[in-house]
Amino acid sequence: MPNTAVEMLPQRKYWVSGNLKMVATGLTGLIAIFVALKATAYNSGGVIGIEDHVFRMVAFASLTIWVALTIGLRRSGTAAVITLGFATFVELILEPARGQDYGTLASTNLGIVLAYCGLQLYWYRLADDRKAAKAETAA
Asked: Which of 65, 104, 115, 126 gives 61 a disulfide partner, CB atoms 3.0 to 4.6 angstroms apart?
């Protein structure tokens, strides 16, 4: 029997696990949805200002990131499409019913696209780190 050590990855058990983890994930998602809805309800005056676009962009970017981390980082494209569907529903159906214009749909889409690009870069970095760790253990 060789005297080689077997590397074992640590088994982490955080305090947020099981049903509590699902509840925490759901509540975090509700907060992200409420922030996105509040951002769409924000009205700084008669004309849509730059603050309104920034708020919507940040709110929908955070909603995209939450959906991606909830359904899995590999499914960031699906998360972007889910958030895009929600944003389109809010901007094209709910907002005109309240009498607001369509002028902010571009800023919500920009937030979704920026979040998607950031998630892709994060995924590539994780993949490179895994390859480097695997190459290091093989050597």
From this structure: 115
Helix (H) or strand (E) run with residue 97 in it:
helix 95-97
State the Cα–Cα distance between residues 88 and 96, nearest whole angstrom.
Answer: 12
75 close to 64: Cβ distance less than 8 angstroms? no
**Contact yes or no for 25/70 (Cβ under 8 A):** yes
Q: What pLDDT, in 10s, does the model give residues 7-54?
A: 665 565 555 556 666 777 777 778 777 777 776 666 555 555 677 778
Q: How far apart are CA 112 and CA 16, in angstroms?
A: 28
d(CA 103, CA 134): 49
